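Two folds, back to back.
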Amino acid sequence: MSKGRNLFNASMTPIVKSSTRPKWQRIPKRNVFYHKSPMHRGHFVLSFAFNFDREDEVYQFALTFPYSYTRCQGYLKVLESRAEHLEGNFCRELLANSIQKRRADVLTIGSVPKRAAEKRRVVVIIARVHPGESPSSFVCQGLIELLVSSHAIANTLRDNVVFKIIPMLNPDGVFLGNYRSSLMGFDLNRSWHRASPFAHPTLTAVIELLTAIDKSKDYQLDFIVDIHAQSTLLGSFVYGNTYDDVYRYERHIVFPKLFANLADDYQPNNCMYNSDSSKIGSARRFFCANLNDKINTYTFEVSLFGYKLKGSDTIIPYTEDSYKRCGRNLIKAFLEYYQVTGVIPISPTQELKKKRPRRHRSPSSSNRTRPNTTRIQAPIHYKDINIYYESESDADEPTFRYKLSPRKSIFRDHRSSSPPPQTIVVLPEPSLSIIDFNIITKADFENATRKSQKDGKVLNET
């Protein structure tokens, strides 16, 4: 909150809801102030004005959309009870207990054959290392919902890849309302290189799990993605590593490029690849240095506020659904990666869609001018129209109600049959008279005029 570089300088505001208005809403920018305070040693201070319009209401304020430990456990319990359709492709296990004996679960999604000719690919996803970064839980829930669905993408990935997902790695910090630390005050994403069973039980459990997968003869660990939320930058982006091996680095940047083509909120300018020694305790740097060279480790970041549309400076705030969409985009990127690398074969229909040539017009055909045509109304056949006089209309100025005669249907309804409408007047087909003005005389014209007037009087009398 006291950082000079903060999203509050980019029009971000806190959110609020009440007991009768349960939907989170952002406080207007004109009522929010983020400034340096001399009374707080020059640190930045957030203040806002709010009017409590109802006395019996309970109001709640938050930095971003909350995602509690209770909500996570309830979601996993419901997910476990409804995963029968996966037929053994879903498993919820206890990874470790926290210091205060709260659950840190691990989900296994994907088929695990007893004997396979090739190693089964494994993707590990970690979320909520920092308790205050609740958008990471929404991103994680979004990718879980896609993986357990009956979508074709989910079915393909479950048949070829095993996903190990840890939805909440710091349950004590989330329960206590900490922003970045655990129960004992440790930043877990700076403690991977010095994790101990006493102070970091969840970290040691993850290290043991990934080490066992890395040494297994049946699995090949491909990805480790640590999901975080960003308080200073907009959009979604990736932090990666740099390597002395050029080929390994080129292989490392393939996945972020595939994700960039799928996500509208991706900000490539915020991406960073480094080997910073100050981040040696992060998951990205630790597993890169301690596991085999084939593993790609990333930190996936998503903004606490919103993202900019491509080619525009308009900021669109994130919602719970848009955070979940980020998770679904991650899963789609995994599918494209494994198709590009040949792990998952591409179906013939997909190849035809990708290789379908575009039709190019020849220069001669593009220069052709279309003929000048006019739009005319479609002719109306009066035999198909029945005219009814309104019963309450004036006799001098009659109004008409037009009704098209019903079309014949191939389905017959024997239960109800309405009588056909009574026809009062049916207009005949219009006829066309041709007059040759080259041979007509003045006397003939006067005779034709008198005849037409006489015929009109006869029609009015009838």
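---
second:
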Amino acid sequence: MSISRFAPVLAAVPLGLSFRMVTGLEPVWWLAWVLPGVLLAIALKLTPHKALLCLSLAVLLACSGSYAYFANVTNPVIAICLVIGQSLPWLGAFYFARRLLLKEDKALAVLAFPVCYTAIDSLMLRFLPDGNWGSISYTQADFLPVLQIASFCGSMGISFVLGICSSALAMLLHFGWQARKVRLAVCMTISVMTLSLGFGYWRLHQADTVKPGMGPKIQLGLTAIDDAIGLQASASYKEHIWQQYAVNAAHLRLQGAELIVLPEKIAVLDNSGAQQAQQRLSALAAHLSVWLLAGVAITDSDKTRNVAWIYAPDGKLQREYQKQFLAPGERDFQRGNQIAIQSLINIPAGLAICKDMHFPDLSRTYAKAGTSLLLVPAWDFGMDAAMAYNITMLRGIENGFAIVRSAREGWLTVSDAYGRKLAYRHSDTLPGSSLFTSLSLNPPSPGIFSYVGDWPGSLCIGGFIWALLRQRKAAMQTA
């Protein structure tokens, strides 16, 4: 029996295992520039059926690395469906690109993979309840220069740049440098990379030239306790957690914190419990003379709301923000539909909650309203802490504001408008985890993306539809 029969399987296993470091919860940024191109190059060398088998096995094996996370968030059956669902965009983009690269004898064929992947990525962001979670654009948190193009073209611009690099690499590996279309495609790709990275390094250099103290400065305290307070929790258990939050907040205030941010859904409360929590938080803010932000869930007979309350140093409740984009487990909650902006020491600060940051339109609304700081109580799922941070941080680059994120079962982080991680600490169980830092802010600086939105995604969707229609027309003419 010829070993060539098993070539797709033999190729798929190491590729799929390596590809996990691109599709996983803690991606390796530089592999996202290389591995898709290697996988596409191998698919180009195989027959259509073997290529489909190799690609299917590789992406399923890669995405199966997220099974444990999906099962933790949902259940085993849904987790399997989600693994398959995460695989399909990759499989579709790879196979579509393979077909065009083999049929077209033009350098522009290098656009097939980035256009297809970015189009699918954009459609997922627009129509799926979890957006484009797992997008290749969220793999680049450790490579800030490429992330800066998000201020101009959002996360889809990053997906496109990574995609065209992979496509050019695949053409080079398969067709060789002697092919004229390869040389032109590589030159085109180098031009895109030069412009993108050049802009990124320039933007980061501009950030480094800003002198400290030019903008307003705020002393920040973040604290999170992983232990949850449910509706049926005992009085002693609840009191222990509430008291520990008060102790942590007091320690942060002693360090000089002017604003203290607590996480999302500290407790699930009925209406009576919500009133008691408001009194407790109001008294704490007044006692410490500090701005205080905390998240809770309020449930009654017909609805549950996930909200964040912000209190002034005099203890007065200033704003209530209701979460607009709901995570698994709270899809039957009532959705909010209003933004909330509070002036903190002459700093316009917006409020959002965890999942809200997965969708850029809400952040764009805050940017256009003049926000220079976004405060985000959150509750992660432990394993996804890095990915949750990567997604949230990118919203700040897109819209030119700093983000303070305090997460249970995740990270306490402060990032600036350039995606730089200014302060960071893991959350923890009782007695919890706390972080103190100072943040100097620049005036609001929304980029082109804040005003125009996902224009690269729209262009790629149009380009993808045009390519499909062109292929269909060619097939009908040869039939």
